[in-house]
Amino acid sequence: MANKDLLIKVSSVVQNDIATDGYDLLGNDKKLIPKVVEKDEIVKYKPVSRDYVKVDRWVIDLVIPFLNSKCSPGVSVLYLDLYRMTYGYGNNKLNITDELIERRVSIPKRTIMAHKKELIKYDLIKYKKGHRTRRGEFIIKRPEQSVYFKDYIQKTASLPTKSVGNTEKANTIYNKDNVYIDSETLVFDFYDKAGWKKTSITRALIDSGVKTLNKLYQQGYKEDLLKDLVDWSIKYCNDNHKPIYGIGFISFLLPEYLASKEKIANQKVKLKEEKKLMVERDNEIERENMIMGKYNLLPKHMKSMILVKAKQMADDELKDKDMGKFSDYTEKYMIEANIVVLMESEFGK
Known about the structure:
This protein is mainly alpha-helical. The chain folds into 2 domains: 101 residues, Winged helix-like DNA-binding domain superfamily/Winged helix DNA-binding domain (Arc Repressor Mutant, subunit A); 165 residues, no CATH class. The protein contains 13 helices and 3 strands. A 3-stranded antiparallel sheet has the order 1-3-2. Helix 2 packs antiparallel against helix 3. It is elongated and about 95 Å long. The protein starts with 11 loop residues before the first helix and ends with a helix. The relative contact order is 0.09.
């Protein structure tokens, strides 16, 4: 009887089951993680209604970024695990050996000792050494109980949560009192009409253009006027043999553009008014760029904390005004506007 090959086809669902069959997730042996075949499935949101730990938001927003920037990430893992074993059970004390912690988080015992010293240094835990008949005792502190984080949390808790105006109630260059325009599309249109190659349009050029256009829009210039200004500026440069360096220069051409639309008698007055507004725009942009420069110099954990709050402020604004979803660029500048607000509130001008 001739030998025949037997072809067996296995469905993707069965393949997934076979791939993970017999794999011990909690085992200590270093097996290769099996490759699971991706399935086309819809993952629905499932709320956590039981078996969960309520974590103080300052732990996630402030302490973890801080520890990760100053120490090994294992220090954060140890703090979270100790938090889970204490506040997860409704208390703040825990008697446990380093051997048991090692088994829980897979961090070597000697490394755990070093991590404990870091948590003690930043006043996040208190520790009493155990002996043969008694396990070591951990007392876990919440961030606001740590002398290291307490002052910062108290100051930050008083910061504004929803206002997007600065401390003088003036509009920032990204403020949406008149609602954002689709400024990044205008920027791309400008460079396209100016004959730039797409590969030459950098993110920095787009960022600068979006700032300029939204500042103009915030000062009351309508979208139709800005579109016409873009076309007029390109034609003006071509007719006068001037190079087109970037979209930011339309702010300087705006006074001349508006004056050209006025009657001869009103041109000088209009030109003077628009030049005054141009100076105000430039000063505002320079001031806010300086504030963002200060923000970028902050330690990573403080930047993370301010960024989280700025993002929440932007989300609240969108929800309150029912504005729907904006593009990534627009959302970025909404968040940046709120960073400016928070920086002014906490550190002054």
